[in-house]
Design goal:
The chain has 493 residues and is of the alpha+beta class. The protein is built from 26 helices and eleven strands. It has a five-stranded antiparallel beta sheet.
Length: 493
């Protein structure tokens, strides 16, 4: 298999023998004698070398006919394959798959959205993941279902819907085929006895350490939208609206288990797989600190900053439209000023919910904002026009806030909207669309830091930043940590 050739099989076996957690999620071990595939940190006895095949993804293992290990639970492994940051089309495709692009849509439609041919998409998936797009989508649905079976008390009908299956029968058949057991026998007795005790869903989302939770939380705290988001006591909470369901989310850190604890409260059947995908993007859980350090650590400007920010993550967003509106509100004002404006907008246009711990509103939808009266909020006429145009474009589908063909394509689509410049477009691409190479070269703060206190020309900064690809977004975040940037950046970050 071509994907196996990308892995050093002997190196993988040495990592497996040492239970090296740094390789967790980078490969999976298929054991010929048992028909099971495991993570490299699996506590089971190490199999003999001749009985091992190492593959880059769970989907590749399942394509070969192996079943997921019930001890090490591959569904909880950090999702950071070796191609991350280098094969952009695979990364964008996986983000769309996690949002349900292949639950009902076709591979042809997915390829068209990515601007590649079906054969090309199939080829890069097989090369980097060892499986076709459909097989990868099936694997991710199955692993999401397994986690919900194991960690929640949801009825299996809701597990099927939440993990992306189109029917309970398909869910049952897939679980039986993959694990050789029915869903009821996979659920731990302790979980089964809890059924009906709570309607909340609790999950654990893994990451690759180190993880600078305090820095991420501090960034989000300074930009939390009043009524929609609250950050306090080491916890992030927010309201959400997704797939016809509304509710609240709570996220906290569990460093001992190298994971985040998530609690989901929903008014109906929550689309858990989509929620998890958005939370992984919000907290940048798929980042590979080792790869980022290898690319940026030796740079004379970035290296010292990165050494002080081990486990750097790019704070993303749960809702792209919300982030886009927040970015427009922040143009040419301070972070605090933008937060105040966002709170006023939510009070005026957002739907009120039962107040809980400071969470009082849902952020307005594009349709609601397009029809709203924004006068009297402290916004200029130009800013109101930009917000209304943005909302109308998103409501009509003319502006789709999802990964595009490329970073350049995403930026071009965004700057075509009234009042949206290159800075805002790159900022939205970085935090809302998950483009790790987004980099606003015109930003005054970045130009000053890169120039040692004297602003250099954008074209000079652009040439300098070529050495930081494909992680220029992390470079921007490192440079933005300078205290003076609060006053000199073009947009409130």
């Amino acid at each position: 298999m071509e994907s196996q050739d990308l892995l050093d099989q002997d190196l993988c076996y040495r990592a497996l023998s040492g239970r090296d957690a740094r390789f967790d999620g980078r490969f999976f071990t298929c054991v010929k004698t048992t028909g099971i595939y495991c993570r490299p940190i699996c506590p089971a006895r190490t199999p003999k070398r001749e009985n091992c095949i190492f593959v880059p993804s769970a989907a590749a293992a399942e394509e070969l006919g192996y079943r997921s290990c019930l001890r090490c639970r591959p569904e909880t492994a950090p999702d950071t394959p070796a191609w991350a940051g280098t094969e952009a089309s695979v990364a964008r495709a996986l983000r769309l798959i996690d949002e349900g692009a292949l639950d009902e849509g076709s591979v042809e439609q997915l390829a068209a959205r990515l601007g590649v041919g079906v054969r090309q998409l199939h080829r890069v998936f097989v090369r980097h993941l060892g499986a076709s797009p459909h097989a990868v989508a099936s694997s991710r649905r199955l692993l999401a279902a397994k986690q919900l079976i194991t960690e929640t008390v949801l009825p299996f009908s809701e597990v099927a819907i939440a993990s992306g299956f189109q029917s309970l029968r398909r869910f049952n058949d897939a679980v039986q085929k993959a694990y050789g057991r029915s869903p009821s026998t996979l659920r731990r007795p302790s979980k089964a006895s809890e059924a009906g005790a709570s309607s909340a869903i609790s999950l654990r989302l893994g990451y690759r350490p180190p993880f600078d939770w305090e820095r991420v939380l501090g960034y989000l705290a300074g930009r939390a939208i009043p009524g929609v988001e609250v950050v306090e006591a080491g916890t992030y909470r927010r309201t959400y609206r997704l797939g016809g369901t509304t509710g609240t989310l709570e996220v906290s850190h569990n460093p001992e288990l190298r994971s985040l604890r998530v609690r989901i409260d929903a008014s109906g059947s929550a689309p858990v797989r989509q929620i998890v995908a958005r939370l992984r993007r919000l907290f940048d859980l798929n980042a590979d600190p080792a790869a980022i350090a290898a690319a940026l650590g030796s740079d004379p400007i970035l290296g010292p900053r990165l050494a002080r920010a081990r486990g750097l993550r790019i704070p993303g967003t749960f809702e792209p439209f919300e982030l886009f509106v927040r970015a427009v509100l922040g143009q040419q004002v301070s972070v605090k000023g933008a937060t105040t404006l966002a709170g006023r907008l939510v009070q005026r246009c957002g739907r009120q919910v039962v107040a809980r711990d400071g969470l009082t509103h849902l952020f307005p939808t594009a349709e609601e904002l397009a029809q709203a009266d924004l006068s009297g909020l402290g916004l200029t006429g130009g800013r109101i026009h930009a917000l209304k145009s943005l909302a109308a474009a998103c409501a009509s589908g003319a502006c789709e806030l999802k990964p595009g063909v490329s970073l350049e394509d995403s930026v071009a689509r965004l700057v075509s909207l009234p009042g949206i410049g290159e800075w805002t477009a790159h900022y939205v691409a970085l935090r809302a669309l998950g483009e790790p190479d987004a980099f606003p070269t015109a930003d005054l703060g970045l130009r000053k830091v890169a120039g040692g206190g004297v602003a250099i020309e954008p074209r000079v900064l652009e040439r300098m930043a070529e050495a930081w690809r494909p992680w220029r977004g992390y470079a921007a975040l490192l440079l933005w940590t300078e205290p003076m940037l609060e006053q000199v950046s073009s947009v409130a970050a």
